[in-house]
Hints:
- Keywords: Signal.
- Helix content is 4%, strand content 48%.
- It is mainly β.
- It folds into two domains: 45-146, Immunoglobulin-like (Sandwich); 149-326, no CATH class.
- The strands form four sheets. Strands 12, 13, 14, 15, 16, 17, 18, 19, 20, 21 and 22 form an eleven-stranded antiparallel sheet that branches. Strands 1, 4, 6, 7, 8 and 9 form a six-stranded antiparallel sheet that branches.
- The model is unreliable at 1-36 (pLDDT under 50).
Amino acid sequence: xxxxxxxIVWLLLCVMMAGCSKEMSYEPTTEPVTGSPDPTGALAEFxxxxxxxxxxxxxxSGVFEAGKAVPxxxxxxxxxxxxxxxxxxxxxxxxxxxxxxxxxxxxxxGVQSVVLQASGLxxxxxxxxxxxxxxxxxxSVLVNVTNGEEEVLSDCYYKIVIDGxxxxxxxxxxxxxxxxxxxxGVDDVTISAGINYNTxxxxxxxxxxxxxxxxxGIMHRYVYATNAEFRAFFAPGTYTIRKDFRDGDGVSMxxxxxxxxxxxxxxxxxxxxxxxxxxxxxxxxxxxxxxYYIKVKMTFTCKLYxxxxxxxxxxxxxxxxxxxxxx
Length: 327
C-alpha cells in the first residue's frame, strides 16, 4: 500500500487496489467553437457563471514554461450561457508575456463551451490570473507557469491538519518522495494518485516516512475513453467521499502515518457526515513517453479510520496536487 513509482514512466499499484493497464498515446482533446460569420454582423450576448471571482468550470490545457513559447494546443476552455446568437470574441489581458484569445459564432442559445488559444512567451514562473469578460460578467482563470520540466513534478504535495497539527509532504528531486498514478480494474476502473516514499523490491516504507493517496471511481468504458473523456472524469467540482464504490461513484482517500499505521476513508464505520471533497483545477502534463497524464489540485475535509482498530481522526484543511494517468 502507498508505494508509487515515477508518475511519467511507470504503472504502479495505488491505495488499496490492483489492476492492469495499457499505455495510450496522446490525442488532442478539444477544438474551438467556430462557424461562418453572422452575415448581419450581429454580436452575440453571453455571460459566464463565476464562483468567487473565478470562472466556475474553466480548465487549462498545456504545459507553460518560462522562457519558452507556449506549445501548440495550449488553451482555456470555459462554459458560457448564450442569450443571443451571433459573433463572439474574447481577449484576455496580457500577463507575464502571454494572453488567450478566441472568436467564433454562436448559432444557438443556451449553455455551451468556448475555447481560447494561448499565445506569447511567458517570462517567469508562478501562478498568474487571466481576466475573462462577457457582458456584465467577468471572472479569472489561474494559469501555472513552471521554471522547467522538474518543477512540473516538484509542485506535487499533500497537506492535512489533524488535531491542529499539520502533516505535509512535498515531492523534490532529492528527498526520495514521488508522485505516482495507479489503475484498478479493466473497463470499469478506479484511478489513483499518491505522494509516497519511493521503495523498491516490495519492502515497506521506512518508519518516519508518510504517504497519501486519492482514488476516484468508477470510470466506465475506460478502455475506449479518449483523452478528453479521461480529463472530463476529473472535471473541477465537488464529489462524494465513498466507503465503498458499490454504493456509488466518488472518491476515497488513504494515509500512511509516520508510525506505519494505515488510515483511510474505507475502514471503520466509513461515516463522512460533514466531509467535503473538491477538484479545484486540472492541467495537462508533459507527454514524454506517449502516455496521457493530468495534474490535479484537490481540497478536502474527511474522517480517516485506522485499518486495524477503527479509531478515527478528523482531517481539516486537506490539500493535494497529484498526478492521474491514462495508463
